[in-house]
Amino acid sequence: MSVLSRQSPEVRQYLLVTGNYWAFTLTDGALRMLVVLHFHALGYAPLQIAALFVFYEIFGVVTNLLGGYLGARLGLNRTMNVGLGLQVLALLMLAVPTAMLTIPWVMATQALSGIAKDLNKMSAKSSIKLLVPDAQQGTLYKWVAILTGSKNALKGVGFFLGGALLALLGFSGAVIAMAGMLALIWLASLVLLKKELGKATAKPKFRELLSKSRAINILSGARLFLFGARDVWFVVALPVYLSTVFGWDFWQVGGFLAVWVIGYGAVQSLAPAITGKGRGHVPDGRAAFAWASLLAALPALMAIGIAAAWHVPVVLLGGLLVFGAVFAVNSSLHSYLIVSYAREDGVSLDVGFYYMSNAMGRLLGTVLSGWIFQAYGLVACLWVSCLFVLLAAMISVALPRHAVADGAP
Question: Which residues, at least 6 apart from 200, have a Cβ–Cβ distance to it below 8 Å?
């Protein structure tokens, strides 16, 4: 508290928003691992376990659209706090006897958790727009990169946390412990978060849910295919392939993917330095096109190498690491651009619309990952990934281009 009191109001709010986001992300990653591990132990197949999370993604699409509207009407502090409260409820719903953990019940809790996650994320990303002056685009890029990168690194930590809590406390004990921790964060947020943060000066109409900004519409289309390209092979195809072809046990698969996510988040935090902020540059449409074009080559090279049986473990695992690094820069760059393009008055409407496209991409990738892998194999998933990234690059050609240094108008 004393550290917070010595900071400027803007920095205090940024730290509070980031702390909320971090706490939520830890529980989100841990809950994903808890559900996967617990139902794996109960004998469910990987594709059946993946189906448990379909509602998580579907409700993410709806929540991002409606959440932006609610954020503009009610304020981002309220939507963030509602997200924290819903996650506490979702965790407590899982703290029931094992006999009550039916598939519909777990899918319902995941739907609730998906709503909570996207309310929290939309609120956090939108808040930063309001805490940094428009002239300081480099600072905005740095703050967005730190928030986005740390979130993904903590999600990887959450994977480890979920496994550790399951081993120490059991499934019910683990979800109760996380609910208690998050409830304390929620109560602190209710007291400390600025009351009118993100509330639009004029009440937005419901018909204003869809963005009227050409730049945001273009960026949203690119985002849909970018995240579809990742999840079409990462969500179901890759874990099942590592388990069935490489013979890895669940802990090896989960541990490797957790480390990958942590590294991915670390690269996201470094994206401003990688893309030239140190030289006074902030990214624009050209950067989005260039980085997407570079990314498109990676799944294509991996598909060729695996099909030709060229040291498959090296091609797949090495390719995954390089793909993760380049994808992290693409993702961080997109996260900056949406906050930069968004209107300050009613920012959550634009950010919510954009992350609705993000959720649609994840949903599309998740569904295609199971279907294409089951029907055609991992190589086909990688070629679809390449196609999706190429579409994201082509769409990015139409994004605005500029040359603005940090501090310039």
Answer: 72, 73, 345, 346, 349
DSSP-assigned states of every residue in 128-185: HHHHS-TT-HHHHHHHHHHHHHHHHHHHHHHHHHHHHHHHHHHHHHHHHHHHHHHHHH
Residue 407 counted as domain residue? no
Segment of 155-164, 207-216, 297-306, 369-378 carrying the highest mean pLDDT: 297-306
> Mind giving me the DSSP string for 100-139?
G--HHHHHHHHHHHHHHHHHHHHHHHHHHHHHS-TT-HHH
Contact between 371 and 237 (Cβ < 8 Å)? no
172 contacts: CB under 8 Å, gap ≥ 6: 94, 95, 96, 97
Which domain does 118 fall in, by range? 2-197+209-396
Residues composing the chain:
409
The number of distinct structural domains making up the chain is 1
Cα separation, 360 vs 367, whole angstroms: 11
Where residue 130 sits, what CATH number does that domain have?
1.20.1250.20
Domain assignment present for 202: no
CA distance 155 to 331: 15
Inter-CA distances, 262 with 99, 153, 178, 228, 246, Å: 34, 4, 20, 20, 22
| Chain-centroid distance, C-alpha 119 | 12
Q: Would you say residue 402 lies in a domain?
A: no
Cα–Cα dist 266/103, whole Å? 35
Report the candidate in 130, 133, 136, 125 with the shortest Cα–Cα distance to residue 280: 136
pLDDT of residue 250: 64
> Alpha-carbon distance 188 to 1, whole Å?
11
Cα 382 from chain centroid (whole Å): 21
Q: Where are the beta strands (DSSP E) in 195-288?
A: none
Cβ atoms of residues 60 and 118 within 8 Å:
yes
Tokens describing residue 280: 């006074």
Structure letter (DSSP) for residue 303: H
pLDDT band at 297 (very low <50, low <70, confident <90, very high): very high
Three-state secondary structure call for residue 48: helix
Q: What is the pLDDT of residue 408?
A: 35
Write the CB contacts of 74 (distance below 8 Å, at least 6 apart in sequence). 199
Q: The tokens 């740095």 sit on which residue?
A: 142
| 330 within a domain of the structure (yes/no) | yes
